[in-house]
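Problem 12. The chain below contains 745 residues. Write out its predicted structure in token notation.
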Amino acid sequence: MNKYLSWREFSRQWWGLPVLCALVLINLSSWLSPIILLPEGRTYLMYMPLAVCVALLMVFDWRALPGIALAMLVRYDLRIGIEMGVLLTVIYLFTLSVAWGGYRAQSGTRWSASFGLLRLPLPHIMWLVVFLSVFFVFILQIIVELDLLPGYLGMVTSDFMTLRTLINLQAMLLGTLLSGHLWYLVLRIIRKPRYLRVLRAKMRSQRAPGVKAAEVVIWFLLLGAMVVMLSLQGISGPVAKILLSDYTLTLLLPVLLFGAMRYGYHFITIVWTITLIVLFNHYRGFISQSGFIHNLVFVSALMLVFTLSLLMMSAISSRQRRLLQKTRSASLLDPVFGLPNLRAFNRDLSRYPRSLLCFIRVSEMDVLSRNYGMQLRIQFKQQLVVGLKPFLQPDERVYHLPGYDLVLRLNCDDTEEKLERLQHYVDDFRLIWNGLPLHPNIGLAYCTVFPPVEHLHMLLGELSGIAEVSLTTGKPESNKSDHSQVQKEIKGKVEMLHKVQRALDEDRFILMAQPIAGVRGDNYHEILLRMLDESGDLMSPDKFLPVVHEFGLAYQLDMWVLKHTLMFIHQHREKLPSARFAVNFSPSTFCRPAFSSQFKTLMAQYQVEPFQIVLEVTESQLLHNVKYADYSMRDLRNYGCRIAIDDFGTGYASYDRLKLIQADILKIDGSFVRNMLTDPLYAYIVQSICQVARMKHLSIVAEYVETEEQCTALRAQGVDYMQGYLIGKPEPLITLISHQTPVSE
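Solution.
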């Protein structure tokens, strides 16, 4: 029982609120509809009961029809009797059903989106205004001509399309087009009173920027004065005859157009509906009695044209302002990351008297995004921001900067505590990417600013450099601190980056070759890289390779080395027919999805056999559980190349990762070999590595072999290949030709 007594059920069921609203509002609208009693019968200036029926359908859908039928029966039974009341009720229900069915069919699921011209304007005007009014009058005309309804009771006469019929048709069009919106809003508020707040918010959003209360008051005073002047009767005089006539009626249009453009659709429909009701109820003030019926037709048509113009202008203005607002909002958001951008950041800085800026620098993000693609960068930033939001106050925000950085605008209260919490969060932050936990180092730099903030880009550039310092110190750094030493190191990195880039552009790298001797006589060479500086001196890899990896040039450099190695084999095929070379690749290169296919393309281009190339990759955490690296290794092994794991034993969880890596050769890190004869721990490490390699059926290469004693001890452990100064020092690759000693398998 309580279910049926609840307001929700009462407002939804056809026997509840739809019936009550129909009984009250249809009779109220009939009483408010301006009417003139002509000798030919009732003549409406604005017919609103039909508009109420449309509004009921817009709110309650087909459930409104029983209430409409009951309201019409009650209304006409009291006025003209049950028989004619039933006939008129059937006419109402039939025309409404046809018009509403056509509207529903064309509008689809959006039929209840809104009333009026803001949304679905064409279906609304076509079905619920023009078709409904014309079809209703047409049915009435047929009924009257069949003598089933007296002409003086209906809106038509037995003569087809008289001036009175035309006025009533215009009244229907005007009522459904204009007043239907007002009744729709009333019904929405009755059904859900909180819709009143929604309506107020919509009216504020449709209002033009910069509208002041004084402007609205002046506009209302002007409109009210014109309505009063038009409503006055019996005033004579030449000036009065001009001002208090249909001339003043035309002056309403510019005033109302101004209101339509400035105050929005909802506002102007409500005001204009009330204004028309007042004016039509005082029509004698502005409609001349001389040629009254013709003047009445003219004024009725004029008001219909006014209404259509006002509604269209207000709808266009409201829609343009809404689109402009959406465009402005979109311009303040980065479309890819969905975060406020630099423009929003600059705007927000001007809104607060003082702000704390916190610059977040994510190191190695360039390398990670090169290896894993754009999606990694997007997801990393988005998840980082999601985790930052609980630390922010309602008016504090995180902003996206071009590249790999973020900046926060914070309030200046509890600065030290906020920075401590932020640092603790970024230290613990992890992104799980395809099962791989990624934790690049994150630096924080901060400063306090006051509006207006001039040279914002220079300030952010300074904070970016200070955030690099934070990557080293592991704590938030301020622009007020002395970072000269760290800044000097950063400057050195940037200079080295430029040198590497110029060397790539100008081919100022030198390929070196160091022999690797097999205990069974199968020798090959490892390709090593040196860079020529501006003075022509050779630069060792430990000076430029860290910068190469930090700034994401590893893949470009790896492919340069591979291409020039293959080019050397191709050019000197006759002198070195069976040359084999080991080429080093960074782990990030193996993780590139297209690396395997690009490698095969270069091999085919220079006609090099797969057995001639050994791909060396440094043991790294990046190779753990990364599908593209695993795919590249498997594919290139099947192609015929051999895979070598370089510097084995220095990384984290080496033995555990060895179970997953598909390799052929294991290279023992030289630090173990160098100290194996003097430190028992290193000797045991070398022994354990050799045992594991034999279990995995891997060939073993020992680096940094410098003495015969080391060579003898390594042979005893089962090492297959020796590499070091005892075997041979690195020499320029081209010198292999001068030796005239082909490198055999």
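Discussion. Residues 292-331 form the longest helix (40 residues). Students who got a different answer should revisit the alignment rule from Section 12.3.
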